[in-house]
Amino acid sequence: MQLIDIGVNLTNPSFADKHQAILERAEAAGVVQMMVTGTSLEGSEQALELCLALDESGQRLFSTAGVHPHDASHWSSDSARQMRALLEQPRVLAVGECGLDFNRDFSPRPQQEKALEEQLALAVELQMPVFLHERDASERLLAILKDYRDRLPAAVVHCFTGERAALFGYLDLDLHIGITGWICDERRGTHLHPLVSSIPQGRLMLESDAPYLLPRSLRPKPKSGRNEPAFLTEVLREVALHRNESTEHLAAHTTACARAFFTLPAII
């Protein structure tokens, strides 16, 4: 059984000096490939550097390059040029993490929208898939995406935590959906239980979003309280339960979906 983690924040300081052990535990759990998330220009450079340093084979670690809405206030006239240079690197396979966050509003909303639209324009120009972030902004994100969707090869709403209307709005736009350990949270994730069965095969992918979102249903829990890709098996178990699928079947189609979405090499 093979799994692909489409979103891991491997550049997070809590992972410093632990990368090799994390990768070994992930591989032992069946997580054969990972997408390392870039959330700022500097972070995207670091994500690429980690991929090159930790995976000389060029088969297992890949990255995204983007500016998260929290960091959108730093988007400048030169940002698109810097990002284009990153996106031209062979191991960088998607634009993002980019999007809208109207929950925390760490950056003013007009700046979030400007940074998002310029990154979507880059994805159109380079014909690359997009790794999207959205919190409390589904209506506005859908409105913006409608102007770009026909020209984009693909886009995934990563770490989907929204309600039914948002999910079906995204599916109607032929977007992919990423599910994390949020679905394992009995306090705030139970609304996802009936929703995941509505995501068609070929549009669903799994992700850890590590070191965040440690699955609350995981037993035993790590003493560190830190999530890591090896725990993607718990997200797999929970999603399979609510889709009434075997874990083997879910692993097979979500892995095939991720491989096609990011154009990842096959792992024998």
UniProtKB/TrEMBL annotation:
Pfam families from the UniProt entry: TatD_DNase
Keyword Magnesium attributed: yes
Binding site for a divalent metal cation 2: 133, 158
InterPro entries on file: DNase_TatD-rel_CS, Metal_Hydrolase, TatD-like, TatD-type_Hydrolase
Top-level taxon of origin: Bacteria
Keyword Hydrolase in annotation: yes
Protein name listed in UniProt: Deoxyribonuclease TatD
SUPFAM superfamilies: Metallo-dependent hydrolases (SSF51556)
Entry binding sites for a divalent metal cation 1: 97, 209
GO MF terms held by the record: exonuclease activity; metal ion binding
Keywords in alphabetical order: Cytoplasm, Exonuclease, Hydrolase, Magnesium, Metal-binding, Nuclease
CDD domains: TatD_DNAse
